[in-house]
Amino acid sequence: MDVIVLTRGGGSLEDLQAFNEEALALAIRQSRIPVVSAVGHEIDVTISDLASDFRAPTPSAAAELLVAEKEALKNRLIDLRSRMVAVMGHQQRYYRETLNNLKDRLKDPRRRLANAWLHLDELQQRLSRLMYFVLHRSRMAVNEKSNALLTHSPKNRVASHRQHLAFQKSSLVRAMQNELRGLGMRLDLLKKGLWDLNPTAILKRGYSITFDLPDERILKRASAIQPGDQVMVLLGEGRLICRVEKAETDPGLKNGILR
After folding, report:
1. Structural domain of residue 44, as residue ranges?
2. Whether pTM exceeds 0.70
3. DSSP structure string for 151-162
4. Helix (H) or strand (E) holding 254
């Protein structure tokens, strides 16, 4: 039982005398279930009206007040859910824009990668804290409203609202997890792109860098070296110390292939 409505239509003072009994007043005060008193007309005041948790002026007014309270609680729950979804959507857009701005500002590959990792950790921690805070507040609000509904509404309606809220919370958590996975995949792609630009990675694909000795300056033209000079060739793994036998300024390239 959610609520007790103590009611009777209008009548004479003798007809309403039963609602002025001390035993009835004590029973009302000892009841664990909320008691609404709606006895007689609005001008009739009985001891049961004073002892009850709430007094309605008439029996019909008692029914209207109980139904209105249930609808107010239902609307409040719907408003809380809408606000929670709006806050989470705003946070998602903010983090996505922040990540794009970081991507545009990064220059040095290693530094860009290190900063991206640090910022991603920070975003993940802030997002986790935000999710916990929002879900905690939502859970507290849901519990509070659920308790109020249990007090003032039929149990089957309360159970239905609770199942609906649990489904919404589960959907929100899944959406946030999918968003985090998407951000992680984007970061992996950025990391791979940065690695492809690393000079060491380029050397490992079969390219080399030649330095003249002893100055160790990078050679870009064959005319900058003479036969008999020593050069150092940097490979993907290790290096070679070589002596130049011949320097050709026109190696005869055709379609990118040495003839």
Report:
1. 4-57
2. no
3. HHS-HHHHHHHH
4. strand 253-254
